[in-house]
Design the sequence.
């Protein structure tokens, strides 16, 4: 009898401790500030972020630079965190003070898996970066082959968009690239996706002429073929 009472008492104590721990967790989560949530994003703490969202924290909250939680997760390269935020309704097109959005940034940094996620969740093609460029143009400049391939072959993507410098993705691959294999592949991808090979810059110089000036023989051959 005494043993039975003892076990009941122990069970009761554990139950009280469990309830107290849960109350502390709830209280802590309820008090999470914007900075707490941003810290959780940067540390890839999905549990803390889920708790904050469940308690009504605004999914599209921004930091002092206008960067959304989703953009911060994208900057950190945290795919699972970004996916969580997107599922919860984060805006993939929300722009920071410098015009970056999660979609534009993922393209510029060659995070193809994130680009694919954002394309499937409302990425817009009429929102541009601070150079009035698309997600494709900096991907071409930086040699992100898989990202270029994905975007260039996405239906209705503006493959021939011209930024305020007067350059298309093709032009940036030629002018800002080094003519190496990855840039040759990018030019070929753009050509195969029916990009216009002849759009000139503000000075009237075509991609072919720029490639010839830089003695990028392989790229010249691709453009001419």
Sequence:
């Amino acid at each position: 009898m005494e043993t039975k009472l003892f076990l009941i008492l122990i069970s009761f104590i554990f139950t009280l401790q469990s309830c107290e721990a849960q109350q502390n967790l709830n209280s802590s989560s309820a008090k999470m500030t914007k900075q707490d949530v941003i810290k959780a994003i940067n540390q890839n703490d999905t549990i803390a972020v889920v708790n904050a969202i469940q308690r009504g924290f605004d999914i599209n909250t921004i930091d002092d630079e206008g960067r959304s939680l989703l953009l911060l997760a994208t900057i950190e390269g945290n795919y699972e965190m970004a996916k969580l935020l997107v599922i919860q309704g984060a805006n993939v097109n929300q722009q920071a003070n410098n015009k970056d959005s999660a979609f534009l940034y993922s393209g510029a940094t060659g995070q193809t898996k994130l680009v694919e996620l954002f394309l499937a969740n409302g990425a817009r093609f009429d929102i541009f970066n601070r150079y009035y460029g698309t997600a494709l143009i900096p991907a071409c400049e930086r040699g992100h082959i898989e990202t270029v391939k994905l975007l260039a072959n996405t239906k209705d993507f503006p493959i021939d968009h011209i930024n305020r410098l007067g350059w298309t993705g093709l032009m940036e691959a030629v002018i800002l690239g080094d003519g190496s294999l990855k840039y040759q592949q990018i030019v070929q991808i753009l050509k195969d996706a029916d990009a216009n090979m002849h759009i000139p810059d503000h000075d009237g110089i075509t991609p072919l002429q720029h490639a010839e000036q830089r003695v990028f023989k392989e790229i010249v051959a691709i453009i001419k073929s």
Observations:
- The radius of gyration is 25 Å.
- The longest helix spans residues 2-30.
- The CA atoms of residues 43 and 123 lie 25 Å apart.
